[in-house]
Amino acid sequence: MTDKHYWISLAIMVIITALLRFLPFIIFNGKRKTPAIIEKLGRTLPFAVMGMLVVYCLKGISFSSVSDFLPELIGCLVVGLLYIWKKNTLLSILVGTVSYMLLVQLVF
Amino acid sequence: MKKILQKAFVDTIPVMTGYICLGFGFGILHHSAGYGILTAFITSLTMFSGSMQYIGVGLLASGASYATVALTTLLVQARHLFYGISMLEKYKDVGLRKPYLIFALTDENYSLLCNDHSDIPLNKKKDYYLAVSLLDHFYWIFGCVLGATVGTLVNFNSEGIDFVLTALFVTIFLEQWHNTKRHTPALIGVGASVLCLVIFGSENFLIPAMAVIATSLCILPDENTDTKRRHR
């Protein structure tokens, strides 16, 4: 099944992904001073982006039925509370993911 | 050098867990779409992007047009522009490592490297960045190939395994929250994203959300109390 369509599509995805990663470094290449506003963005973006990524991961939930949001809600609560309690990233991720998998496979 | 590698390994353990599970999920998905182990390896080596690889399997399996593939990639991956902007300073004097470090700027890698690392000596930082990036890349390829291999051998119910990505970002979000006193940027990130999700729907919200976030952060008054960290 690996054919021309596969390889060309893959190449498009790889090239555009790399291009987007390189673009800021190409534009602000250090030859001229990076504008202050960009530097400010650079300092504040990490915090905002993590919030955006959490929402991005949860974008599929809907509130039309319980099974469309409860596993995600419980999963996030497990991850969050465990993290606040134990401050252990690994433990939170493992327990949270396993609980979520059990919930979607066995309960909902 | 050994110390740097050791620290990089310890710091990347959460991403290792995430990447091996997530890569495993990708491998399974990739296999069930009818593709082999070699393509899973090549894809994870050259694209190195969790979300895009998942979406890519769907695009490929549905025989999407090249224009659709290009546009979808552009929309899904546009957030990487943000990562570059916040790493401009850090990646200024990294020498020949630079092209690879930029290539490897994934969500997870970025989430590890955007922190302060004030405990690493200045001249060792670039080696630390490289070690973290290489380790993460290795975990990712390993996970993807493992999933693609296991997929050919057993029937594994991986439903819900993609939650590992959500869990990873939730913990990083909380960690960042804990490490700063200034929560406005984080709140803007969540608020703008939820708002745009409600208005534009799950397929189209990312670009408007990014626009709102960038604009809000630009007009946010500058406080120098940004990253007063309580270090562990």
Question: What report would you give on this structure?
Answer:
The complex is a heterodimer of chains A (108) and B (232). Chain A has 108 residues and is mainly alpha-helical. Chain A has helices at 4-27, 36-57, 70-86, 89-107. Chain A has two domains: 1-51, no CATH class; 58-108, no CATH class. Chain A has four helices and no strands. In chain A, helix 3 packs antiparallel against helix 4. Chain B folds into two domains: 2-160, no CATH class; 180-232, no CATH class. Chain B is built from eleven helices and no strands. Classes of the chains: A mainly alpha (108), B mainly alpha (232). The interface between A and B is large, with 67 and 96 residues.
Looking at this protein, list some descriptive labels.
heterodimer, A: 108 residues, mainly alpha, 2 domains, 4 helices, 76% helix, extended, B: 232 residues, 11 helices, globular
Question: Strand count, sense and closure of the main sheet of chain B?
Answer: none
Kindly report the average pLDDT value of chain A: 88
**Secondary-structure-derived class of chain A:** mainly alpha
Query: How many DSSP helices of chain A?
Result: 4
SSE layout:
The complex is a heterodimer of chains A (108) and B (232).
Chain A lengths: L3 H24 L8 H22 L12 H17 L2 H19 L1
Helix pairs in contact in A: 3-4
Chain B lengths: L1 H31 L4 H10 L3 H12 L4 H12 L2 H8 L10 H6 L3 H7 L11 H29 L9 H17 L4 H17 L5 H14 L13
Helix pairs in contact in B: 1-3, 1-8, 2-8, 3-4, 7-8, 10-11
Summary?
With 108 residues, chain A is mostly helical.
